[in-house]
Amino acid sequence: MEQPHFVQHMNQFHFRFNNGKKSSTLIFWFFVALLTVACTLFALFKPISPWLLLISFPVMIIAIYQLIRKNGARQSTETISLNDEGFISSHFGPILFTEICTIQVSARDISLLGGVAYENYLRTENNFPSARFSISTQNGKTLYWILQEWGGLYNSKEDFSTFFRFLTIVTDQVYQLHHSNEPWSKYLKVLDEEGHWEKLG
Fold it and tell me: 135 and 103 in contact (C-beta within 8 Å)?
């Protein structure tokens, strides 16, 4: 595969994101922690058998530690170096703009794209949404990031802002390559109302 030619001075973007890894062990340790916390509290307030506390407390500590460790594995750090022809992702490798065939953004989860505003979430008990972004290439590679616009467990608000600047540049390059003589689409020049773009032909 032809590799992107990157000049010496490149724009760089650094951010953290949720890599979306699904872990059965994470679910396992969550339920173990839940069970052992309940057993430990029961043993403290209902001292029927000291053996229950001796067993449940150390298992609870181990379960909480494993839960934190496994959950932390879902956070990744990305460094993207970009120029006029494409970019290099520290997580996914080199990509040429001409190779991109689809872009998918959960636009309704992003206030910058007309989604629910931050203040509306503050007035309700709804959790802040996690916005999902994916870019697919002609050779079958899929780049996938999950970030929360106002910060969360896996990324900060600044991380999201950095990523959004990168995404804006990518969609602008796609527009210049494939739609320069056409009106802008609803979002970021090329994305439709569902936050989707697909290369035709």
Answer: yes
